[in-house]
Specification:
- The protein is of the alpha+beta class.
- The chain contains three helices and seven strands.
- Helix 1 runs antiparallel to helix 2, helix 1 runs parallel beside helix 3 and helix 2 runs antiparallel to helix 3.
Length: 181
């Protein structure tokens, strides 16, 4: 029988309303005892929920306690989430991961990207907009990498810079700023 090795993976749902977590563990027993996941949502605190082993678990604003049952679902906030999956005894059998959720900023980035007319005649403007969008994307990816490596402060700084840059990009519209970040 394989040894116990707890592991979870956050799987993109490409949806601002859901957080997907899959159990990638190997167990030394057929049915682990008392599986739970504790999720720290940025700006809202921690919630402990039942977790289905060997399955894909989906969480939303209601299951995470951000909205009441029966209320419309709301988008989950971007930011650094801490996830701790455990089975009994939980004080020794657990795995904990930090992830940077970026679905909301990614949705905003995608909208900005789709407004970019790649066939426009003014090549200088298009080149600058491509540089701007690449810079924004670089900061988003940096925030994700920092969170994956437990550098929460750096992750938040990079995310905030990406947000600022994306807001400025959207305010400018199709005009070239002449600035390379």
């Amino acid at each position: 029988m394989p040894a116990l090795n707890l592991d979870i993976l956050v799987v993109p749902t490409y949806n601002t309303l859901t957080l997907g977590v899959v159990d990638a563990s190997t167990y030394d027993v057929p049915s682990p005892s008392a599986p739970t996941i504790e999720i720290s949502v940025p700006g809202f605190g921690k919630v402990t929920l039942p977790f289905v082993p060997n399955d894909f678990n989906i969480f939303n604003s209601t299951s995470l306690g951000l909205t009441e049952l029966g209320d419309p679902l709301t988008p989950l906030p971007d930011g650094v989430y801490t996830l701790r999956y455990s089975i009994s005894p939980a004080y020794i059998n657990f795995v904990e991961k930090n992830i940077m959720r970026t679905e909301m900023i990614q949705e905003k980035f995608d909208e900005a990207f789709m407004q970019l007319d790649m066939m426009q005649c003014d090549l200088a403007i298009k080149q600058q907009q491509k540089v701007d969008l690449n810079s924004i994307y670089f900061f988003i990816q940096g925030a994700i990498a920092a969170a994956n490596n437990c550098a929460v402060d750096t992750a938040n700084k990079l995310y905030n810079q990406a947000t600022k840059m994306l807001n400025n990009f959207n305010k400018r519209g199709c005009q070239c700023s002449g600035n390379n970040y």
